[in-house]
Design brief:
By secondary structure, the protein is α/β, with parallel strands linked by helices. It has helices at about 40-45, 75, 95-105, 110-125, 140-150, 170-185, 195-200; strands at about 1-10, 15-25, 30-35, 55-60, 65, 80-85, 155-160, 190-195, 205-210, 215.
């Protein structure tokens, strides 16, 4: 599902990733572990093709970074759901509207939007919160809303960038379990974190990144 071959990307002011070789299966759940500034977010942005490798190649399903046309990138991104540490919810839209937004962008019919949004809300356990605005939700509820927004496109891949970074330990554990349920339903998941204690012993592959260099266990 995901393959990076000798991928490098360096920012003008330094930092990035170097000579990364990595693959993720279509039903796999893997953790990307490393300290702040180690290159986790850069790696996820390369997979999302928000950045293009300066060296090497990123391959997502049938899409290849060295061959894809710019107009095809939105089709790639339909396969990928993003979950961010800082939620990225719109304060002027309620929960339902926030989750529905990706479907409006890709032109899904109204009746189908309602059905898919309600299904996603139910899947993450936020029934009854549809009309709440982000500031009326707890941090854990906002992060569940972000997972629902990622799921509503029925993606093949979920990329989660430090999704537990702003959550307490109990809520973080609940989010991990939610993502495991999503994985069992068929989505590949790559979750970045700096908190090794949170993810150790869960039976998933751990990919370590230090100073832009990847090491796998």
């Amino acid at each position: 599902m995901i393959r990076l071959d000798n991928v490098s990307y360096t920012y003008e002011k330094g930092g990035g990733v170097s000579n990364v070789n990595l693959s993720l299966g279509d039903d796999e759940y893997a953790f990307l572990i490393g300290p702040t500034g180690s290159g986790k977010t850069t790696l996820l942005r390369l997979i999302y093709l928000d950045l293009f490798p300066q060296v090497g190649k990123v391959e997502i399903d049938k899409f290849k970074s060295d061959k894809i046309k710019r107009r095809k990138i939105p089709y790639l991104r339909r396969k990928i759901g993003m979950v961010f540490q800082d939620y990225h919810l719109l304060d002027d839209r309620n929960l339902f509207e926030n989750i529905a937004l990706p479907l409006h962008v890709i032109g899904v019919e109204k009746d189908e939007i309602v059905e898919r949004v309600n299904d996603s809300i139910e899947e993450v356990g936020l029934e009854g919160k549809e009309n709440h605005f982000p500031m009326e939700l707890s941090g854990g509820e906002q992060q569940r809303a972000c997972v629902a927004r990622a799921l509503v496109k029925d993606p093949d891949i979920i990329l989660a960038d430090e999704p537990t970074g702003n959550l307490d330990p109990v809520t973080s554990f609940e989010l991990i379990k939610l993502l495991e349920e999503v994985n069992r339903e068929g989505a590949a998941i790559l979750m970045a974190s700096h908190n090794y204690n949170l993810i150790k012993g869960r039976g998933h592959r751990i990919i370590e990144i230090q100073n832009g260099t990847v090491r796998q266990s």
